Each structure stands twice: as structure tokens, then as C-alpha cells.
């Protein structure tokens, strides 16, 4: 197994403030215990974002930060936007990232950045179900839950 990168974000729609959180585990850390990894989570603040743009910005930030450190990288996210973008690439490029009416898509710039980073780092994308019952969670689900809580905690503290 290669390296694993867990990425999530939490955004307040009223203020436009969001936080991305990430946990990078190099190859060889297959047995990482979730409780022991809490201090390894890195958080970053993002401004002027909505939920889907925050997920993309957090993904790009984390991939730029850790993507070049390993030839095999799994990126774990609960964002359908992120995990669906590779299958949407041909259609988006064919339409020049425009809607059927010819207007540029609001996320066009982020989509282009995503594809550039995806081509450079060639990660495997793993779709996480962010809300499983405790007894149904794998070790990777527990690690992802830590990242999810880290992003939500940072946002709550910023909004106090």
C-alpha cells in the first residue's frame, strides 16, 4: 500500500469562512491508530468559499503539500465533487468548462487546477462515507472521521 492522504473541509455559508483539514500517512503506516494520529492533522483556513469550492481548495492544498512525496498516493475524501471529477473530465473539457448556455461554470478555475494536479500526482481517489455507525467503521474510516472533526472544530473555534 502506498501513502494515504485524508482530506475534508467544513464551511460556514453565512461568513464564507471554511477550514480544510488533512492527515498524511506515508507508505508503511498501514496500522496507524486513529487516536494516536490526532496531533498529525494539519488545518488551513480558506476565505470566500462554499462547500464544494472548499472541498476542492482543501484537496488542492493537501495534494500540493504532500502529493510529490510519494509515487503512489491514495486520497480519501467524502466529497462527491472530488471523486466524480475524473469521470466528468472529457465532458467538461469538451464544453470548455461552460454550461449549456455558454456561461463559464462557477468552479471552472478550480476544476482546471484539479485536473492539472491530478495529472501531475496521479492519485487514486477513495470515496469515504462520512457518516457510518461506529461498529461499521474501518481503520481508514476512523482516520477520516478524525480529519472531519478537525475541520469542524477549527471552524467552530473561528466562529466564536
Question: Can you describe this structure?
Answer:
A five-stranded mixed sheet has the order 3-2-1-4-5, sandwiched between helices. The longest helix is centred in the C-terminal third of the chain and has 21 residues. By secondary structure, it is of the alpha/beta class. The protein has a single domain, classed as Nucleotidyltransferase, domain 5. Strand 1 and strand 2 form a beta hairpin. Helices cover 44% and strands 19% of the residues. It has five helices and five strands. Helix 2 packs parallel to helix 4.
Main β-sheet description? 5 strands, mixed
Relative helix content: 40-55%
Count of spatially separate domains:
1
**SS-based class:** alpha/beta
Attribute tags:
Nucleotidyltransferase, domain 5; 5-stranded mixed sheet; 44% helix; 160 residues; 5 helices; alpha/beta
Write a short abstract of this structure:
Helix content is about 45%, strand content about 20%. By secondary structure, the chain is α/β, with parallel strands linked by helices.
Topology:
Layout: E1 3-11, E2 18-25, H1 34-37, E3 42-46, H2 51-66, E4 73-77, H3 80-94, H4 108-121, E5 124-127, H5 139-159
Parallel strand pairs: 1-4, 4-5
Antiparallel strand pairs: 1-2, 2-3
